[in-house]
Write a structure and sequence with these properties.
globular, alpha/beta, Rossmann fold, binds glutamine, six-stranded mixed β-sheet, seven-stranded mixed β-sheet, 29% helix, 6 helices
């Protein structure tokens, strides 16, 4: 038996994070990290730092041992070919991911990993990539790519802004709630005007950009949930979101 290397640690926690440190795990940054998705992790780290908390950023790539102790999980998008590359490893860690999801660990899943947390992705060339079934949804590759700025609205997070670029079209099972209703762009598919999915403490979305710089409400939901689970509370004051607000207005005004 070979010992798998452990998930690599990108940034050690600051030596004295006054209020405690969250362990944030980025899934497959080598293959599943397009259109700036890694920015989501940087936003989480920065919003913690502004409030006196630390972040330890871990990466899980194919072949790594899955870390024992994780407070928040982030996954990005990727090419169909990248999704094929990671599928075997993803199925290996699926039992852990399922337990963490059911237990309420906050997760942000974007595009390619959103699709693979579902039941199946049948790509445009007929390849079937089985998903890990955490989310009851299926994805079918289409001939048309859905590309452009998206504005969607949700009761929980207000207006959500991001950028989509995918050929897969996702359909949610009956019991699964969409994250938001699309006002501009496509979202999950070309028909339903649904964007993303919302399950336990998982936020799943097609939106890149990356998503969190323009959507502080989602970033803070993930951080608050993780901090309350770990420390019993979250002190969330002291953040100036005026630049995020400007970026939202700018993106929302783009023709596409
Ligand atoms: N390869 C998938 C698709 O095209 C996911 C793309 C993405 O992550 N942006 O549907």
């Amino acid at each position: 038996m070979t010992d798998a290397p452990s998930a690599s640690s990108l940034s050690e926690a600051p030596s004295d994070p006054a209020k405690g440190t969250l362990r944030i795990l980025q899934l497959y940054p080598r293959e599943m990290n397009i259109y700036g998705d890694y920015g989501n992790v940087l936003v989480l780290r920065q919003r913690l730092a502004w409030r006196g908390y630390g972040a330890e950023i871990l990466e899980h790539n194919a072949g790594d041992a899955f870390p024992d102790d994780v407070d928040l999980i982030v996954g990005g998008g990727g090419q169909d070919s990248g999704q094929v590359v990671i599928q075997e490893d993803l199925h290996g860690i699926a039992p852990r991911l399922r337990d963490l999801a059911e237990d309420g660990t906050p997760m942000l899943l974007i595009c390619g990993l959103y699709q693979l947390f579902g039941n199946e992705f049948r790509t445009n060339d007929g390849t079937v990539i089985p998903g890990i079934g955490v989310l009851d949804l299926e994805t079918r590759g289409g001939t048309e790519r859905l590309i452009g700025n998206v504005v969607a609205t949700s009761e929980e997070f207000g207006e959500i802004h991001g950028y989509e670029n995918h050929s897969g079209q996702t359909f949610l099972g009956e019991g699964l709630k969409p994250l938001a209703t699309v006002l501009k762009g496509a979202g999950n598919n070309a028909e339903e005007k649904h964007e993303g999915a919302r399950y336990r403490n998982i936020v799943a979305s097609y939106l890149h950009g990356s998503l969190l710089p323009k959507n502080p409400a989602i970033a803070d939901f993930l951080l608050r949930t993780a901090a309350e689970r770990k420390f019993g509370s979250f002190e969330d004051g002291g953040v100036d979101d005026s630049l995020a607000e400007l970026a939202r207005r700018h993106a929302g005004a783009r023709p596409r």
